[in-house]
Amino acid sequence: MFLKFFQSENSSKLFFGKLKLFNLRLKSFDNLLNGMTNIETHPNAVITALTASEPEKILEKSVLLNTGQKFPLIGFGTYTIQGSKQIFDCIDWALGAGYRAIDTAAVYGNEEDIGKSLRTLLPKYNLTRSDIFITSKLSPKDHGANKVYEAVMGSLSRLGVTYIDLYLIHWPGASGVPMDSKENKKLRTESWKGLEDLHKSGQLRAIGVSNYTVRHLEELLKTCTVKPAVNQVEFSIHYRQSVDLFKLCDSEGIILQSYTSLGGNSHSESLLKDPVVEKVAESLKVTPAQVLLRWVLQKGYTIIPKSLHKERIEQNCQLDFDLNSARMKALNNITTRMKYAWNPDTIV
Ligand SMILES: NC(=O)c1ccc[n+]([C@@H]2O[C@H](COP(=O)([O-])OP(=O)(O)OC[C@H]3O[C@@H](n4cnc5c(N)ncnc54)[C@H](OP(=O)(O)O)[C@@H]3O)[C@@H](O)[C@H]2O)c1
């Protein structure tokens, strides 16, 4: 039912609103969990950037995309932040705290308010457009050769910018197309071609995907002329991606970015109140949210936490501490498995 909802034409309003939890207490995941421990001994580009001695402050650290652009390790997530006042305040606090990357999407319905807020706020912080890394995403309703160009023009116009730093295919399936239909594959291949053209003409500095599984990525890598720069996926202590996805992205130079690492709007309590997370937080005199986010970074994913509150926005980017191997081990060994966001596994 949930996936049907995402395939429907009018899904954007209720985007993420009716999420079903998928309790993934699968044996194979415990195997993956063990495999993931090994990743720490094989650092990817994000881990290498995170552990580099220069620059010293985490907010200034970035990883290089396959385009050569600097991609900040920490960005500000904006899903469900809406209305001109709320957007303005949150962007104000985020820029004030030091965030220099903002994650939005056509379906979030906030591109226009983000664009307006940036035009007012950049001078306040002595910044210009080029100091800010903006990510937006193609709506599932705009998949296909006939729609992608207009969709990107819409994002550019709503944001009021001449280029977008990174544009992602939000979801491998198209609205209104059954998830088991091969039409999804045809449409997303066309969408990628459209994004490649807009990348080549300079409106999209980098292009990438979101919610792509190994299967979706391997298919894209066979036909693309521009490789995706980023794959943005759900990743948290309770929902871990496979080692195969990590290895594929690493070997193809695709940066992994994590979302819903605090559990999203409805379920952050279960992650933040995890007793192991609380214990590690207490031992370091940081908050559970900071532990959850730092763990994601040390796993090799960039992060885009969202909050409506000034003190949390500030806290979520103050991650200049290290989780040593004993603490990482304790966190890795948490066995709860919950999926908090939509599941792309069955999209053909
Ligand atoms: N590509 C995709 O399909 C996709 C899907 C989902 C999200 N995203 C992107 O990823 C971003 C982050 O994911 P998300 O929005 O699902 O949520 P999230 O970052 O996992 O967490 C947000 C929740 O945690 C709370 N929170 C934030 N900081 C906190 C802190 N320091 N202490 C306690 N609670 C805290 C927030 O509440 P308050 O707001 O009340 O503080 C909110 O309920 C999104 O905003 C969006 O940009 C992408």
UniProtKB/TrEMBL annotation:
Record protein name field: Aldo-keto reductase
Lineage, opening ranks: Eukaryota, Metazoa, Ecdysozoa, Arthropoda, Hexapoda
Keywords: NADP, Oxidoreductase
InterPro entries per record: AKR, Aldo/ket_reductase_CS, NAD(P)_OxRdtase_dom_sf, NADP_OxRdtase_dom
Annotated family: Belongs to the aldo/keto reductase family.
Superkingdom of origin: Eukaryota
Annotated NADP-dependent oxidoreductase domain residues: 74-333
UniProt cross-references to SUPFAM superfamilies, sorted A to Z: NAD(P)-linked oxidoreductase
